[in-house]
Amino acid sequence: MRYVIPVVAVLLIGYRLWRRRQGQPPWLLAAARARLARRHRTRWDGPSSPVGLVAAREIRERLRSRAFRIGTGLVLLVVIAGVIIPVLRQGSHPHENVGVVGTLSAPLRQAVLAVGADQGVEIDLTQVPSESVADQQLQAKQINLAIVDGQRVVVKSASSLTGDRVVAAVAQTVALQSGLQQAGLAPEQAAALLHPKVLPVTSLEPAAPPANRTARVTTTYGLILIYILLTQYGTWILMGVVEEKANRVVEVLLSTIRTSQMLTGKVVGLGAVALAQGTLLVTVALVLAAAVGSDLVKGAAPVVVVSILVWLVLGYIFYCWVYAAAGALASRQEHVQSLAFPLQVPILFGYIVSLTALASQHPSTFIHVLAYLPPTAPFAMSVLVADSAVAWWQVVISAALIILATVGVARLATTVYSRAILRTGRRVRLGEVLGHAAA
Amino acid sequence: MTLRMEGLRLRYGDVVALDHLSLTVPAGEVVGFLGANGAGKTTAMRAVFGLVSLEAGEVTWQGARIGPDERRRFGYMPEERGLYPGMVVREQVEYLARLHGMSAPDAKRSAAVWLERVGVADRAGGKVEALSLGNQQRVQLAAALVHGPELLVLDEPMSGLDPTGVEVIGQVLAEEAASGRGVLFSSHQLDLVEHVCDSVAIIDHGRLVVTGRVDDLATGGNPRLVVRVEGDRDGSWARALPGAHVIGVEGGTVRLVLDEGADSQPVLAAAMQAGPVRQFGFERRRLSEVFREALACAT
Q1: Which of A182-196, A224-238, A415-429, B202-216 has the least mean pLDDT?
Q2: B247 vs chain A: nearest CA distance in angstroms?
Q3: Which of A19, A128, A303, B181 is most exposed by smallest CB count within 10 Å?
Q4: What angle do CA B260, B264, B268 make, to 5 degrees?
Q5: Complex ipTM value
Q6: Buried b (16+ CB within 10 A) or exposed e, B188-226
Q7: Is A439 a residue whose pLDDT tops 50?
Q8: Set of chain A residues whose Cβ sits within 8 Å of the Cβ of B87
Q9: What share of chain A has pLDDT > 90, as a percent?
Q10: In chain A, which residue's Cα lies nearest the Cα of B143?
Q11: Do residue B95 and residue A57 have CB atoms under 8 angstroms apart?
């Protein structure tokens, strides 16, 4: 079974290459060929087809736009900062300077350093020649604390014993150690008492899989990415359609090519840009995270990353049609906001509910339901994949549902678009357009 | 190579946009599609491109119903001009050429030729939004012509243009027709276009009211005279002349229509009595008069 899919894929590619070289297969009847050609005309059949030309224009104009380039640069910066800053903050532990007057036994030295490690602070021990020098350094705040002969602790003001956790803990350790030694214990025995070894613990319930936390972190970023790209590119489609309608160029275009070719080209073109931008951001994030050793990528399952990109694409192809149809209803650029808002509601809903579910340990039944509803599936299913809460066939069913829904939505959107796009002057109500369909 | 509209009918609610409209555009002829604003010209032109859904009637090209493949070989300039404002002029025209099925090199070559022809070659590298409205309109014309269409449909191509622009468009239309293409263009400024058209179709409320060759229409009816008398501003000498009536006075130039069978000489005599005659001659009927008369007959 494992080898069947690659073999089928190779055979399919080989067949296509062979067919391209052979030209049209000879056994197809001319009539059937013509029918096929008619049916496939709206599809992508090369960069010179209307769909290809429209898509290429969308890509070219988008990549040329300064706003797009600056926006992408800014988002990249945010991603880079999001990866690097946590790593930098991990790397820079606060320091505590401790002066040592006289001798400090090795076990006590270990114990003091261990206190620092417990408190998340690096303790620098520096030898100070005399107590008076130590006093001066305390005054000058070069050191925060001095240990004298392993017996006493000197601080600048008494308040630092209560105000500074590290100083207080060091003072306590020194006091305990010297107390235990005075009680007759050897320094090693005293140190062993202060820092007992942890006993091996056996848990009766298995621990959560270790990848789970990282998968959740990756998915959180993934959900943000899906949300931003869906709303961003949806709005761009909406604005593009409104622009074409508002400045009437659409009448020239539709006198030349079909509505479905026009819309498909738009969707394919902007979708290619969206996918490229998403892939760029994910790649930069992953490569950078791997380079600086961030948590983001440590153990991030490729399945989770691939799933996010797949759901990004599925979510896009579902929503883009709706945005295009909405754009046809507008008549001026001012309508963009009021038309975009209702479309953002299901996206925002799926996004927020899924983020919340990601924070809780066990995904609720509600999330399981949302994972099969096309408008929310891109978010909810990503969460379930991160939690390994679904089997592969469940993902396939959800994907099939969203693709089916997309076909329906695309048809409806094309109808709305072609009926509304040449009605200018005022905003077209959805009811008018669809009511006309029933009549 | 003939475009035929047959029995087109369409209503928008209670408004009748097209009322059994039939019209023919033969190859090699410029047909002026005339009528007041809202007469149905734009709707009829949109019908050629399948942009409106007709209630009845059909538009045919070479005897067959028009489909997407035929439309790609037509050139269209809609009344509502439309270009992508942020796009470079040359690329815009090339893009539209390619949508009409031209190859990339052909589109490039043809776009350069047409931008030169309509007089905006020096602005070809700039953005559309940087052009004046008149120049945008020239680009729009280039966009309609760039793919060498078999039929040209231009909705109000002259409106908003300066006299040079009107002249360029007139020349281009004549050349296109001379090379065997059919040209249908609309206008509500009837007198501006009469010398451009070979024939006209005048419509009102979606109905065809007059159609025919411009020469026939202009020379039909009673003879008309143009008379200018020096020193006379209001043409009062021509009032109450027997056998002729005044149809207009413009800056001292009087236009008269002779009655059926009347002689022009009494008019000349009356003019000479009023002062030195600087102009006296016969004139063709203007399209606006044809239009007015046709409307008067129709109602």
Answers
A1: A182-196
A2: 40
A3: A19
A4: 150
A5: 0.81
A6: bebebbbebbbbbbbbbbbbbbbbeebeebbeeeebbbe
A7: no
A8: 61
A9: 16
A10: A252
A11: yes
pLDDT mean by block of 10 residues, chain B; 299 residues: 90 86 91 86 90 89 88 88 88 93 92 92 91 89 92 88 85 90 87 82 89 84 86 81 84 85 86 88 82 75
Residues A347 and A406 in one domain: yes
| Dihedral of alpha carbons A27, A31, A33, A39, sign | negative
Q: With the CA atoms of B161, B166, B168 and B169 taken in that order, what torsion angle do they form, in degrees rounded to the nearest 10?
A: 90
Asked if B83 lies within 8 A of A53 by C-beta distance, the reply is no
* Domain made up of B3-218: CATH architecture: 3-Layer(aba) Sandwich (3.40)
Could you give the CA distance from residue B229 to residue B277 in angstroms, rounded to a whole number?
4
CB within 8 A of B54, min separation 6: which ones?
B8, B9, B10, B18, B47
- Residue A217 is assigned to a structural domain of this protein: yes
pLDDT in tens, B224-254: 888 998 888 888 888 878 888 888 888 888 8
A166 and A272, same domain (yes or no): no
* Chain A residue closest in CA terms to B85: A247
- Which range of residues forms the domain containing residue A65? 46-86+212-438
Residues A281 and A251 in one domain: yes
Q: Which of A251, A332, A422 has the most B C-beta neighbours within 10 Å, making it the best mutation to test the interface with B?
A: A251
**Which one, of B157, B169, B156, B146, lies nearest residue B74 by Cα?**
B146
Under an 8 A CB cutoff, do A255 and B96 touch? no
Tell me, yes or no, whether A151 and A250 share the same domain: no
Q: Smallest Cβ distance to A254: which of B51, B77, B100?
A: B51
Q: Domain check: are A80 and A188 in the same one?
A: no
What distances in angstroms separate CA A277 from CA A266, A271, A281, A400, A429, one per listed residue? 16, 10, 6, 25, 34
Q: Which of B68, B72, B85 sits opposite A247 (nearest CB)?
A: B85
Chain A interface, best mutation among B84, B88, B92, B184, by max A CB count within 10 A: B84
Which chain B residues are within 8 Å of A48, Cβ to Cβ?
Answer: 98, 103-104
| Minimum-distance CB partner of A422 among B51, B98, B103 | B51
CATH code reported for the domain at B220-298: 3.30.70
State whether A135 and A242 are in the same domain: no
Instruction: Look at residue B288 in the predicted model and tell me its pLDDT.
Output: 79
Residue range A192-215, pLDDT digits in tens: 777 666 666 676 655 545 446 778
Nearest residue in B to A242, CA atom: B84
Closest CB from B46, B71, B77 relative to A256: B71
Using DSSP's 3-state secondary structure scheme, residue A425 falls into coil
Are residue A147 and residue A243 in the same domain, yes or no?
no
Distance from CA of B209 to the nearest CA of A (A): 28
Residue A100: its H or E element: strand A95-101
DSSP A171-229: HHHHHHHHHHHHTT--HHHHHHHHSPPPPP---SSPPPPTHHHHHHHHHHHHHHHHHHH
Q: How confident is the model at residue A407 (pLDDT cuts 50, 70, 90)?
A: very high
Quick check: B82 and A61 CB within 8 A? no
Q: Tokens 């990549």: give the residue.
A: A63
Cβ <8 Å between A250 and B46: no
Min Cα separation A241/chain B (Å): 11
Write the pLDDT tens digit of every residue in A68-127: 899 889 988 988 888 888 777 765 556 778 888 888 888 788 878 877 777 777 788 888
Instruction: Determine the residue of chain A that is closest to B84 in CA distance.
Output: A249
